[in-house]
Design brief:
single chain, alpha+beta, disordered N terminus, globular, 13% helix
Length: 267
């Protein structure tokens, strides 16, 4: 008997064929997007990393990483591999090892981000409070972290959509601070108790989107100053890996794909 499919069924079949299953934050599947990752996570923008390492030709390779201040080496895996030994390293065996520079610089796009979820959104009682996140300041390093436009921000409008793609993803959300909370997460709030009226810049689109964050939305923070490596180590010790993400090969402005996990080797 001839089988007939509805338009929805046909669409789902095509999606399954072309994209394959995505993982649920526990590994890197055929197409795992940033929004598929469990939070909080530490992610490294591989495209920006390649641009910073001008002295090494990485082309499309995924390098191993050396953390200079902690004397730790990280190796790329496809994901979900518990046998993290040298023999089991699945990605780019011939790729070089590079020294990872996570210094936050005003004139350069960020390499490392804290990927985190909103666990408590804004309420009407406070003009300064914006959201509580599932990442604590203790995971951000001694210099703290700053909220940025982000890698997959769906609150930004077409007016400045392109500015949150590529280098624009690490631009400050002006007038917003991240700090301690009395509960399990960290707090985003306006710098002034009068809220966006007192804190926002003339270019309000840079930060006004934070007024509309909802529970479950994901945002990104960038560790400030020289805190990046310390923050990465905190995540590594607590969660076992950090993730490599890249927008390469993705449609312009869409969220990046997760391309690897970096882990320490078991000896």
């Amino acid at each position: 008997m001839k089988r007939e499919y509805s338009l929805l069924q046909s669409t789902l079949i095509l999606v399954a064929i072309f994209f394959g299953p995505a993982s649920n934050g526990t590994g890197v599947g055929a197409l795992t997007l940033l929004s598929d990752l469990a939070t909080p996570s530490f992610v490294i923008d591989l495209r920006t990393l390649r641009k910073r390492c001008v002295e090494v030709d990485l082309s499309d390779k995924i390098p191993s990483l050396q953390l200079p201040r902690h004397d730790v080496s990280l190796y790329p895996f496809k994901g979900g591999d518990d046998a993290t030994t040298a023999a089991a390293t699945a990605l780019d065996r011939d790729a070089p090892t590079i020294s990872l520079d996570l210094q936050d610089r005003a004139d350069q796009a960020a390499v490392g981000y804290l990927h985190t979820s909103v666990i408590r959104p804004r309420d009407a009682e406070s003009s300064a409070f914006l959201a509580e996140l599932d990442v604590t300041p203790s995971l951000c390093g001694s210099d703290g972290a700053r909220l940025v436009l982000g890698l997959n921000n769906h609150h930004v409008g077409s007016y400045y959509w392109a500015r949150s793609a590529g280098a624009g993803s690490s631009m400050d959300a002006i007038g917003i601070t991240f700090g301690d909370a009395d509960s399990d997460g960290g707090i985003l709030q306006w710098e002034d108790d009068d809220g966006p009226v007192a804190c926002n810049s003339n270019d309000g689109k840079r930060s006004e989107w934070a007024n509309f964050l909802r529970a479950g939305d994901t945002v990104q923070l960038v560790p400030m100053g020289s805190s990046g490596e310390d923050s990465l180590m905190e995540f590594l010790d607590r969660y076992g890996c950090v993730y490599g993400i890249s927008p390469e090969g993705r449609p312009m402005g869409s969220e990046p794909a997760v391309v690897c996990e970096w882990r320490r080797l078991k000896h």
